[in-house]
């Protein structure tokens, strides 16, 4: 056998080994990742409610408006409140973080947190019942993803808090997050329907509108704990790929 043929043989063996190693790593990585059956962006919600029934006399905000803590939201005129003030049951000119009370029975509701007005349930001139909600605010910098995965009992045991989750947004941009909490419901066939809340600093800092508004569907890929023999090698290759920007 000539040296040229030997070099060709050696080169062919190297190429085959590289291909087999790459395929093995890809297979191992896919074995330790699971795609969500459903996932959507959510946010911390703060409801605005009233203990007194009355008529809405003023709307200071609309759905989609950004508000700061303490900003006026709605004003309600309550005859029952006016009576309680006259009886001394409620003090006039009471001020809290949630509302201000006037002597004439006017309640001015305020935002307890900064964020975005997600919903306004009443309109000027409408009547609200005592104990009902007037609207909802999505707190700023509180976006997260709630996702559902269907996994086997074995794979459920490989889910850990702090595990990496890749979130693909509707514009094909991918952001990284981590598992914050896990809950499970086991089906009759023994598979675990797992709900995972995912925190992502990059997502949380995004505006709660457009493609990052609460309710927007996303694709989530959860990375399970890798218990295989190639776990260390896979981690090394993955870390190297991130360092070079792949």
TrEMBL record:
PROSITE patterns: PROKAR_LIPOPROTEIN
Major place of residence: membrane
Record's compositionally biased regions (Low complexity): 204-217
Keyword Transmembrane included in the entry's annotation: yes
Segments for region (Disordered): 179-218
UniProt-listed InterPro entries: MFP
Annotated localization: Membrane
Transmembrane segments: 7-27
UniProt keyword GTP-binding present: no
Membrane topology label: Single-pass membrane protein
Keywords, sorted A to Z: Membrane, Transmembrane, Transmembrane helix
Top-level taxon of the source organism: Bacteria
Family: Belongs to the membrane fusion protein (MFP) (TC 8.A.1) family.
The name this protein goes by in its record: HlyD family efflux transporter periplasmic adaptor subunit
Species of origin: Curtobacterium citri
């Amino acid at each position: 056998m000539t040296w040229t043929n030997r070099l060709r043989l050696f080169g062919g063996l190297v190429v085959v080994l590289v291909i087999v190693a790459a395929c093995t790593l890809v297979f191992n990585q896919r074995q330790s990742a699971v795609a969500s059956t459903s996932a959507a962006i959510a946010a911390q919600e703060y409801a605005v409610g009233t203990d007194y029934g009355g008529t809405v006399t003023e709307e200071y905000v609309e759905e989609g408006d950004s508000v700061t803590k303490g900003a006026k939201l709605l004003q309600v005129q309550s005859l029952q409140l006016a009576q309680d003030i006259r009886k001394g049951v409620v003090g006039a000119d009471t001020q809290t973080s949630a509302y201000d009370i006037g002597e004439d029975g006017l309640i001015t509701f305020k935002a307890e947190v900064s964020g975005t007005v997600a919903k306004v349930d009443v309109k000027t001139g409408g009547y609200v019942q005592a104990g009902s909600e007037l609207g909802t605010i999505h707190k700023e910098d509180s976006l997260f993803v709630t996702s559902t995965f269907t996994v086997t009992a074995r794979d459920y045991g490989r889910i850990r808090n702090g595990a990496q989750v890749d979130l693909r947004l509707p514009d094909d941009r991918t952001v990284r997050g981590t598992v914050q909490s896990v809950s499970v419901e086991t089906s009759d066939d023994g598979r675990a329907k797992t709900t995972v809340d995912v925190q992502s600093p990059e997502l949380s800092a995004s505006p709660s509108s457009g493609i990052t508004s609460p309710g927007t569907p996303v694709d989530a890929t959860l990375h399970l704990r890798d218990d295989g023999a190639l776990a260390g090698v896979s981690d090394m290759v993955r870390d190297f790929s991130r360092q070079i920007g792949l």
